[in-house]
Design goal:
The chain has one helix and ten strands. By secondary structure, the protein is mostly beta strands. The model has no long low-confidence stretch (mean pLDDT 76).
């Protein structure tokens, strides 16, 4: 005992740990709400400040306020339970009903109840008609052809002379089907579309000498009508066979009579 008879202070015991904050639903002890601290008093002349009410504590619902009974059950909500939204009777996934027997049950018992529309095929494109080129025939007196013809003919052609003036003629072909080449015949009353009796008349051409014929694809062929002096193409020495179609190309030259050359052009 110390001097003076004063009792010695008791030794401090071990510090008690603060209680754990465990909800009662998990075996803990509910803690009473703590009183908010009292602010220090200032001078009396100061106006008292409005204090905010303390936030309500819900130790058993983890911060969610207690709600009304759910799912139509009467009575209080179990302690520590989360609020639940009411369940509608018509909610949940919707499944297709299996197709019953009958004409709509495609596939029988192993088919499907989802009847899908078959894919629609694309319509076949309508082929466009080919655009036909415009063909023309240029009729002229050809001096080179006349010279070659005179060299081949011999004395029989001694009385022929190349015309001093023969204007060029341009005759459209497309859309006319067939055009006859020759000289008009008063006895038969025929006038060919490419008339070589127009002055200066070509005496070496037959009345029905040759024929130009348009084909389905828009091209043209040449047919000799078994003429007296024959028909040559592009300066050839041999005439083409009679009654045989010869295809024509752009720029081909058709030689008939004594000096006439017909050049076909595709526009």
């Amino acid at each position: 005992m110390p001097a003076g008879g004063a009792p010695a202070p008791a030794a401090p015991g071990p510090a008690q740990p603060p209680p754990l904050n465990i909800p009662a639903a998990y075996g803990g002890t509910a803690q009473p709400p703590q009183a908010p601290p009292v602010p220090p008093q200032h001078h009396q002349s100061q106006q008292p400040q409005h204090q905010q009410p303390p936030a309500p504590e819900y130790p058993h619902t983890y911060g969610y306020p207690p709600s009304s009974p759910a799912n139509g059950q009467e009575g209080p909500m179990p302690e520590g339970a989360f609020p639940e939204a009411p369940v509608r009777e018509d909610s949940g996934p919707v499944y297709a009903q299996p197709a019953g027997p009958g004409p709509n049950n495609r596939g029988g018992d192993f088919g499907t109840s989802f009847h899908l529309a078959p894919p629609q095929g694309q319509p076949e494109p309508v082929p466009a008609e080919p655009v036909r080129a415009n063909w023309i025939a240029v009729v002229s007196a050809d001096r080179d052809y006349f010279t070659d013809m005179m060299a081949r003919s011999g004395p029989e052609a001694a009385g022929l002379f190349f015309p001093p003036y023969c204007p060029e003629r341009r005759i459209p072909l497309t859309g006319r089907g067939q055009l006859r080449i020759g000289r008009r015949s008063q006895h038969r009353g025929t006038v060919p579309e490419i008339d070589l009796s127009v002055p200066p008349e070509d005496p070496g051409a037959s009345h029905q000498h040759a024929l130009l014929a348009e084909q389905a694809d828009g091209s043209w062929v040449l047919v000799d009508q078994d003429s007296t002096n024959g028909t040559t193409v592009n300066g050839g020495a041999e005439p083409i066979s009679p009654h045989t179609a010869v295809p024509l190309n752009d720029g081909d030259r058709i030689h008939v009579g004594a000096w006439t050359t017909i050049t076909v052009h595709r526009a």
